[in-house]
Amino acid sequence: MPVEISLFDPFSASDADFAEHYGVMTAVMGLDHPRQSLPTLEEYVTQTRQPEAATRPKERWVAREDGRIIGSAYAAYPELENRHMATVRVIVTPTWRRQGIGTALLRVILPALRARGRTVVVGEGVKADASGDLWAREMGFAQTHAYVRQILNVPEAAPGLWQRPVSDGFRLERWIGGAPEELLEQYARGRSAILDAPIGDSTIEFEDWTPERVRAHEADLRARNVENRVVVAVQESSGRVAAITEIQLFASKPDWAGQGDTAVAADFRGHGLGLAVKGAMLRWLTAERPAIATISTHTAQDNAHMISINHALGYTTTATLAEFEADIAAVTKRVESR
């Protein structure tokens, strides 16, 4: 029986379909990322039904054989920077790999990307040197970037590692949700320090942070019931925000936190501010949210300084992930020839 590809709507999907969708994810993660903690089925349903970021809507598809879901995919469409791109992830149950399922999904996805005016497709979350890496290259994708996943196992961590005082001449500020009005402009400027982070050969553009963009981002997080915690280092003499770090918490993952951006402005590097803001964040978070057991972060593989900061705070590196890019027209031609 031929494989059937169809859209997957998480809001109308049946319990049986969601269980199969979840089964694909857990089978893939269990093989490719065995050290990664997994949500329960109930948590997975809640997470998948979480409203998407307003600036990055998604479409989802599933592949079925004899009615059973054996693969899934999504495409995300940036609506601010990178409007020429779509970000895609395709996964297939391990026992069904190398049988054309991923290619069948991609064959259906590509017209949807073109219909939205996208010309470049980005593959994300691909485990380096694994089957997905090989398949992406066969489809004509080129690796442009690699990053490492680092995990902090909070119950096994040494809190003493987080005691990182801020340098003389700086003070720490923190908030949940919205930046204080008096720091808003400098916070937006501080966030823009991420613009010089290593991105390999990727053509993805970072966000252009302005006060208006910050406020829109904060509103979007509130609308999706995401708690955003921020710690910054402020230079006393100038009032400039010299370093920032953020953590995001989700009601559907009560024992997990995701590290957002961490950045230190170029002219303030070398003062230990990255360690100071991240250490302060960990002390604050664990004091107020003792249920948090895991904190996850992703860092560019060639950003040795940030990787070493995370190691100094107790994080361990659990996986290397690759990012791929390709011209949609070229990939379409490659897929149609198979």
UniProtKB/TrEMBL annotation:
Question: In terms of domain of life, where is this protein from?
Answer: Bacteria
InterPro entries in the cross-refs: Acyl_CoA_acyltransferase, Bact_Acetyltransf, GNAT_dom
Q: What class of enzyme is it?
A: transferase
The record's section on CDD domains has:
NAT_SF
Q: What is its EC number?
A: 2.3.1.-
Q: Name one Pfam family in it.
A: Acetyltransf_1
Which keywords has UniProt assigned to this entry?
Answer: Acyltransferase, Transferase
**Domain N-acetyltransferase: residue ranges:** 3-167
**Could you cite one Gene Ontology molecular function of this protein?**
acyltransferase activity
- Family matches, as Gene3D superfamilies: 3.40.630.30
Q: What is this protein called?
A: GNAT family N-acetyltransferase
| The organism of origin for this protein | Catenulispora pinistramenti
Q: What is the lineage of its organism?
A: Bacteria, Bacillati, Actinomycetota, Actinomycetes, Catenulisporales
